[in-house]
Amino acid sequence: MMSEFCGTCEEALSAQGAMDYATCSACKNGYHFDCTSVGESSWRTMGDSRRTAWKCPTCRDAANARNTKVVITTPDPKEQNTRSASSEQLTKQKELTKQKERAGQSSKLSDLEAESPIVTLLVARMAELEKRLTEKIDQGFSKSQNDIKEVKDKIKEFETALNFYGDSVDQAVKTVKVFEQNMVLMEKRLEKSETENKEMKTKLRNMEIQVNGLSQKDFNNKIEISGIKDNTVDKDEVTKKMLNKLENRAGEILFKTEKMTREGDTAKTTIVVEFKTQEVRNMVLTKIKEKRLYSQLEDVFPNNGSNVYINEALCPYYKKLLYQASKIKKDKKYAFLWVKDGKILLKKAENGKTMRLDCLDDLGKI
């Protein structure tokens, strides 16, 4: 089961998704990008196969140690019992020979033992040769000169192989370093592109807000009367009667009207009333709310008890934004969503912070 905490700093991992932290394919632990050897840009640009095969430094080192483990052989105890205990000279010769062999090869073995599985195989062969030499010395010095020459030839062959594989390893290391340098350059270019994209998105958002704001200015002196069931109503007559209910003589307020009717079984009529200025529009709206006029229009046009809505008029883009915001308000249980002077405002609770919605991208912040 994957841990919810970083395998290095033990802090909580992001809950947004698996791309926000690195996951080890061996131990299944997650790691912050600052806590491990892979950067965020590298992780996001990896293919699925590389991400699923990635290992943390601890698991990678453990795997390398297993792959390079040397098999050590020991002499057979029965064969040791057959040695001549009385031959002190043979024992000294054996120790001297071992010391020479170990002194000549130990430094090279320790340096190259962890470089390649092939080197590990060669080390095992060397151990076998050492065992054979020990057996020959224990049995006596007959034919020892030929045996020693054979061992020396094998050692020389072994050294040649070590030099060859050492050169190959050096070349591989250089290739890896060049690859790593190229990866660093690619990461820097990617980071630069991401920064430029963010700046471009910010500029586009600001331009979109400015354009929509200019479009809304044409609607800031208008109101909408919506929810009218009768599509035959006289728009001018309805407006005059409504203004008279506000204790204002209709002739004193200049206006012009536009009627829009939706088609279909649920067709309803909307009347858009345009006033001379935004101040006049705001004064009319204030009195409508004070007198709760939207519930007193049955004598103006019968509506069979259906609700009538009187609100600020919005441009098409802001209408879409308000509609999307109303769905999110319902889903996330926000307390207030309203329009004031062409601005769409949202509040979580009565004493909460007011949020202004300027464009559709702002819905992602809710």
Automatic annotation (TrEMBL):
Tell me which stretches of the chain form a coiled coil. 141-217
Which superkingdom is the protein from?
Answer: Eukaryota
Q: Does the keyword DNA repair apply?
A: no
Q: What is a GO molecular function of this protein? A: zinc ion binding
- Tell me which Pfam families the record gives: Baculo_FP_2nd
Q: Where is the PHD-type domain?
A: 3-62
Provide ranges: composition bias, Basic and acidic residues: 91-103
What are the UniProt keywords, alphabetically?
Answer: Coiled coil, Metal-binding, Zinc, Zinc-finger
Asked whether the UniProt record includes Metal-binding among its keywords, one would answer yes
- Annotated region described as Disordered, given as residue ranges: 70-110
Task: Please report the name of this protein according to its UniProt entry.
Answer: PHD-type domain-containing protein
